[in-house]
Amino acid sequence: MKTIGILGSTGSIGTQSLDVAQKQGYTVSVLTAGSNDSLLEEQIRRFHPKKAALLDEEKAKELRVRVADTNTVVLGGEEGICECAADRDADVVINAIVGLAGLRPTLAVLQAGKDLALANKESLVAGGYLVKEAAAQHHAAILPVDSEHSAIFQCLQGKPANAALKKIILTASGGPFFGKKKEELRHVTVQQALKHPNWSMGAKITVDSATMFNKGLELIEAVRLFEVAPEQVDIVVHRESIVHSLVMYDDNSVIAQLGLPDMRIPIQYALTYPARYPSPVGELDLAACASLSFAGPDEETFPCIGLCRHAVKAGGLYPAAVNSANEEANLLFRQGKIGFLEIPERIQRAAANLRNYERFSLDDIYAVDEQMRQAVRAAGQ
Ligand code: NDP
Ligand code: MG
Question: How far apart are the C-alpha atoms of 312 and 225, rounded to whole Å?
């Protein structure tokens, strides 16, 4: 039986990971959260981890007192989260933290030589070769949790050594604003952006799906994970979210992975790989799907895809820069401080001033993060 760690256990992916862990009978060695102390306490009492951490140090102190009757050690701050990430007992650690905040924990998992089940795409996008090198150096695997990347990973299995991968075809649901033109998006509300047609997810990624910045992040994620050129990644809008992504080989044969839109399938596969076990997710009934539709993305209305494609082609710190600029713009939109169309505008303006370097350090990423967030905030003044 496996022992797993879950970073970001109180979120959408985190809670679904615990559901999978429970059904598979896994031991959970570490749990971490940002500030949701009450849910983390419930999880500690249910899963009995050896260690747990909260980013919020004050709340960590209070929680430590409240769970003094358990055997769980409660740590605080980013350092505490990274200590959990590097847990010696875990066979695999899921990083389900949202945003760049997941980068140090991602590196901590890999540097401990642990396999990383990666939901936190922002850490791979921003960290780039630092993340890949840490994995290679410490012989740790990065197993994709993102549904599209899990699909590609599955499509690539059984690939004969002489079969060349021609293309990756990423599917996109199109989000709540599919089919709308730019002017119709000027006054959309946060509530409208938070209504995703097929997936129930955390607020940040749901807004990223509405702007399609999420698909841009996933394009960069695919380039990094599968080591293909940006030109080899196509994006196709598939409203039904049944085909989770596809690969095309040199002979133009295309392989796809299908299933109901439920993250517990890719989460479970990242944990059980290469084995497969029964899952709590229902069977796909193709006849009930009636029709599956495909269309090219409208990149004029949704310019975030192009911003990310440009960033990955430019390389170096560019992906980190657009990621940080997006985090800030996404937040300002959710706070009601900027309009929906200002999200790509502010990202583009902020990233235009980047001084780029091909090789960079972790400190460079955090310096760019600060610079981009400030530039995005200042863009409206
Ligand atoms: P949520 O917002 O639901 O959960 C985020 C988790 O991270 C929570 O446990 C939260 O704690 C914790 N957290 C937030 N901020 C910090 C911080 N600064 N430091 C440490 N921990 C923090 O997000 P999702 O579960 O939706 O997404 C998580 C990741 O998975 C994202 O990178 C997303 O892109 C990716 N992903 C998500 C999918 C989904 O279906 N939800 C699908 C594919 C990828 P607290 O609750 O205390 O705030
Ligand atoms: Mg995805």
Answer: 13
